[in-house]
Amino acid sequence: VPEKVNYKARIKTLLKEKNAVLIAHYYTDPDIQALAEETGGYVSDSLDMARFGRDNPATTLVVAGVRFMGETAKILTPNKQVLMPELEATCSLDVGCPIESFSEFCDQHPDRTVVVYANTSAAVKARADWVVTSSIALEIVDHLDSQGKKIIWGPDRHLGDYIQRKTNADMLMWQGDCIVHDEFKASSLRDMKAIYPDAAILVHPESPESVVKLADAVGSTSQLIKAAQTLPNKTLIVATDTGIFYKMQQACPDKEFLAAPTSGDGATCRSCAHCPWMAMNGLKAVYNALNDATGHEIYVDEKVAQGALVSLDRMMNFAA
Ligand code: 13P
Ligand code: SF4
Question: Which domain does 100 fall in, by range?
Answer without folding.
Answer: 93-173
